[in-house]
Design goal:
This protein is an alpha+beta fold. Helices cover about 25% and strands about 25% of the residues. The chain has twelve helices and 24 strands. A hairpin with a 4-residue loop joins strand 13 (about 265) and strand 14 (about 270-275).
């Protein structure tokens, strides 16, 4: 967690912009502990004010919000005073009466046409480098991007602060005494080799770099958006070592590759920021099912399964990870759009076929229909669902990849995609 002391040392290291825009260093001066210095900086920002500047001040508010989580609510602090100063300034410049509701301000900023300050990426990289110096590499000057940078947020951890499992140890089904039949697992079978990834373990690590059926995989679990996707780590003849950036886009995990420091969308399997952004790259996904250990073991008696002896100290009991988050429909981070056809965390089965638009089918519908047939853009799909909830999708008897996701996470990035509910 970033400290208040670190935040208050941010200024004035960032170089000033040499354009008609307000100098980027002035935004950092806005959090100066000396009120007179901060007011002078805000006056200078206000003299050349554009509404698109608001997000730069809100970036600082977001970081202070992390600080305030560790401070008693009834004790005055510099963090609270600085946040209040910034909110008051935003009200005066925008005439928006949003008070100190950071989420409301963020939604308003995201509703504006995207017109970032020319130094915004450098600014973002600078302040995030104070959380973790490695984050600066994600936002170099002139960085290429095909998503809005203002919708990229810090998720509260450092780079690989949620540590991926690398070649995790496994045990046989008969040795997995720690699992109950009712425990949730994510099951993968490739070239006749089956492996189960218990939710109770994978939720603490959000990624396993593994090899199944002779294929190198990154089994990625975005706990916030409720999806597990096994991606092949080779694309266009290149191998990528994927990790957890500590950053989010639309409340969904952003991966990064060690080779180029590009940021990748978990849901899309594509680079979205950095040198690979805009390239014709997409990771190939493998089929996965969400089911119970009892059902998976019965169907795959020769399966291997992750061992709880991971080398990390975690509470690997069932349901321990993200218990409070999974228990409600509330989101931890903001998204730019939502849709009330389903609740935020209702699950959908996502099917992506080459050359076709993606399709999402409500899991609760599939639970009522063990065999569901649907036509999608000229393709006949058959979705089979077991009693324990494992979904498998077939075209002419051949299985095709599909994965689950929370509705809010899928919709926020794919608002035009078809939904069947």
């Amino acid at each position: 967690m970033i400290s208040r002391r670190t935040l208050l040392r941010l200024f004035p290291a960032l170089a000033n912009s040499q354009t008609e825009h307000a100098a980027s260093g002035l935004f950092l001066q806005a959090i100066h502990p000396d009120n007179a210095v901060a007011r002078k900086a805000l006056d200078a920002v206000g003299a050349n004010w554009r509404d698109s500047y608001a997000i730069m001040l809100l970036e600082l508010v977001r970081l202070f919000a992390q600080v305030r989580r560790n401070e008693p609510a009834d004790v005055p602090s510099p963090a609270r005073a600085i946040q209040g100063r910034i909110f008051d300034f935003l009200v005066s410049k925008t005439r928006k009466r949003l008070g100190e509701d950071a989420r409301a301000w963020t939604r308003w900023a995201w509703s504006l046409p995207y017109d970032p300050h020319p130094d915004y990426a450098q600014f973002k990289g600078f302040i995030y480098s104070k959380i973790d110096p490695r984050m600066a590499a994600f936002f170099p000057e002139g960085v290429q991007t095909n998503i809005r940078l203002d919708q990229v947020e810090w998720g509260g951890v450092k780079v690989n602060g949620i540590p991926p499992l690398v070649n995790p140890p496994t045990v046989s089904a008969s040795e997995a005494k720690y699992l109950k039949d009712s425990n949730v697992v994510f099951g993968i079978e490739i070239a006749g080799e089956a492996r189960a990834y218990p939710k109770r373990i994978l939720a603490w690590h959000e990624m396993a770099r593994d090899r199944v059926g002779g294929i190198d995989l990154a089994v990625v679990y975005c706990t916030l958006c409720g999806t597990v996707i096994p991606y092949r780590t080779q694309a266009n003849g290149r191998r990528f070592t994927l990790g957890t950036s500590g950053l989010l886009y639309e409340s969904s995990k952003l991966m990064f590759d060690e080779e180029t420091k590009s940021l990748w969308s978990t849901l899309q399997g594509q680079p979205v920021i950095g040198p690979l952004s805009g390239k014709e790259l997409r990771l190939t996904l493998e089929p996965v099912v969400t089911t119970t250990w009892g059902e998976w073991r019965s169907a795959h008696p020769a399966t291997s399964v992750l061992s709880p002896e991971t080398g990390h100290q975690r509470d690997y009991s069932e349901g321990a990870a993200y218990r409070d988050y999974f228990a409600t429909d509330e989101l931890m981070f903001e998204v730019s759009r939502s849709d009330r056809r389903l609740r935020n965390k209702d699950e959908v089965l996502v099917i992506r076929l080459p050359g076709k638009s993606p399709l999402a089918v409500a899991v609760r519908l599939l639970q009522r229909k063990p065999e569901y047939k649907v036509e999608h853009e000229g393709v006949s799909l058959t979705i089979q669902t077991t009693r324990a909830g494992a979904n498998r999708v077939f075209i002419d008897g051949k299985r095709v990849p599909a994965h689950r996701a929370f509705w809010f996470g899928w919709y926020s990035q794919n608002p035009q995609a078809r939904l069947i509910q």
